[in-house]
From TrEMBL:
Domain YgjP-like metallopeptidase residue range list: 74-150
InterPro entries recorded: UTP_pyrophosphatase-like, YgjP-like_metallopeptidase
Name of a matching Pfam family: YgjP-like
Record's protein name: YgjP-like metallopeptidase domain-containing protein
Residue ranges the record marks as coiled coil: none
Organism: Streptacidiphilus jiangxiensis
Signal peptide limits: none
């Protein structure tokens, strides 16, 4: 992180020699700084993951996530993007081992797409959102952060509430 006295308002971030540089105004408070760094890292990751995974790559990714976080117990047969899912980020058919991801996830940070994929993989094992379901997601370190990101996306799209006078 580099603080710059010349920088009065703008924050920017880029990668340099494998490191991430975040430029922030010198006057920013520690709390603001923390918020901005997280936001800029999300943006960087989103930019980098713009490259959209194809069906084969999605299945490979899903198998990798299953192996890493679910002991390989979830065995997806197909994973594909769909454009008709506007209220859900993902869905699955456990009896067929098929997973569908909303195209609205495209361009979001990789950890968010991974979370939705892992969420659907967990549904192949546990259909309901009970405690056993959430226990399956416990080993994925970014569950809370990904859920927060998706809630933020939903909130940002709701029409702004009018103030009453
Ligand atoms: Zn679910």
């Amino acid at each position: 992180m580099r603080r710059s006295a010349r920088r009065s308002r703008t924050v920017s971030a880029y990668r340099e020699d494998g490191r991430t540089i975040v430029l922030i105004p010198a006057r920013m408070s520690a709390a603001e700084e923390k918020r901005w760094v997280a936001r800029m890292l999300d943006r960087l990751e989103a930019r980098e993951s713009r490259q959209i995974l194809g069906a084969d790559e999605l299945v490979a990714r899903a198998r990798e996530l299953s192996r890493k976080y679910l002991g390989g117990r979830a065995e997806p047969r197909s994973v594909r993007w769909v454009t008709n899912q506007n209220t859900r980020w993902g869905s699955c058919t456990p009896s067929e081992g098929t997973i569908r991801l909303s195209h609205r996830l495209q361009g979001m940070p990789e950890y968010v797409v991974d979370y939705v994929l892992l969420h659907e993989l967990a549904h192949l094992l546990e259909p309901d959102h009970g405690s056993r379901f959430w226990a399956l997601l416990e080993s994925y370190p970014r569950t809370e952060r990904a859920r927060g990101y998706l809630e933020g996306v939903v909130a940002a799209r709701l029409p702004a509430q009018r103030e009453s006078h």
